[in-house]
Amino acid sequence: MSRPTSIVAQINKSSFTRFNSTSNVINITPNELDTDGPHSLLVVAENTLVDDNQQFIGLQAILVDDTAITVTPPPSSVTKPVVEFVGHDLTLGTKTTHNILTSFGWMMGELLDLDHIHVAYPNATLIDGLEKKYFDEQASRSTKPWSVVILLGSNDRKARYSPSEYYNALIGFLTKVRQRLDEEAPIFILSEPLGDMFRPSQQAVYRRGDQHIYFIDTTAWLRYGSAYYIDDDHLTDAGHELFAKKLALLLKIKLTNPREPLPGPPPNPNLPGDWQTMDIGAESHIGLPGTVSSDSSTTFILWGSGADIDNDNDAFRFVYQPFSSQGMIESTVRSHSAFAKCAKAGIMIREHLGPGAPLIMLGISPADGIFVQIRYGNFESTQLIKNMRASPPYRLRLARQKENHDMFEAQIRHVDAKGGNDGDWETLVQVPFVLARDVYAGLAVTSCDTSVVSVAKFTDVGLYHSASILTTTTRSRLIDQQQ
Predict the structure, then answer these.
(1) 76, 102, 282, 317: most buried, per Cβ within 10 A?
(2) Among 263, 252, 249, which residue's Cα sits nearest to residue 322?
(3) pTM for this structure?
């Protein structure tokens, strides 16, 4: 080497070996190889960034014993597509066993047999960062990639850039990236696994109006906890591996059928229609696993554990569908059995499937009766907007309107003991609240105690798209806490 360098080496696609060298000469094979050649050798510098400056390993010579020779690899008859990964520590695989060699991008490239380029640096931001550095280094990258995968946002949030600043920067960045690619080259904007800058990222993709730019919600791919996360900013080897497998499924579709749309989640065989279900929350907060049964397409019984739906993150059972633009969800909470006073059951519209997602919930709990609570920003504390004394059964409705501005209306309707409607719809609250265009709507139950489950029965469940906020005879109360 031209200088002492810590490297990782792989012979014949076996396991990686790390060499921490203080010498310019590194003995890759201290032990004799088991088989005759030819052998393949891969050498990668583990740390290619020093003081924010790009460093390169300088290979000066390969020394072999007297009986060995080096040979030129046979020319490949197939030119592999090149995927370019743009991002920060996650793209670099920082803190994994072999850094970039155990990053999701590297593993995904190996899964699909693609060549890959990584344009990333620690703590990278888009604003005042990669929006300039990416194009400064473009001249050194002669290969035009088949696809670009972008994962950014968390460091921009930490740097206190606003969602609108990030949105504008991302639109400009995508415009310039498209100019250097083929017109139909797929560009994937991955959400941060924990949802930072989710809304402006999705919004920028729709604003661009480019049918070959895709926003991918990754917030349900990995459950937060020690199995997949080292900390908020770094994944374990297992986390990168699972992330790579999820991403590979999407890129493979564009490789084999470029004009095919990306698929949604596979149907849940245990639920009717398009309903999906999962426990949302960190593994340490979920407690007992939740479950759901359905007696019909409109009746569900949820068993949910979890620490709570409150403060800056949630843990609960969720039965949900994707929900776009405007519309409404409604259901009757027929019964709710709870051990803790803070246990909750109700309907929810949620920006993403991470534990700290922005949300609005209309629900029932022993402590608050019927309540409306909102989390305005990712991992911000929830706010109780309004509550009133009540207990099941009650019919609940959440409607979202986006015609002039984002507005939510929460309505309730009393249900008599025999299950019939007893009275008219009453507007509990009407509140401005901005969420991403594509979100999730569904039924939520938390026990507020990780050692038990809470059980709620929901009947007459309906999810309606493109419905306007309903006009009622009850005077609504307008609350604006998002300014």
Answers:
(1) 317
(2) 263
(3) 0.89
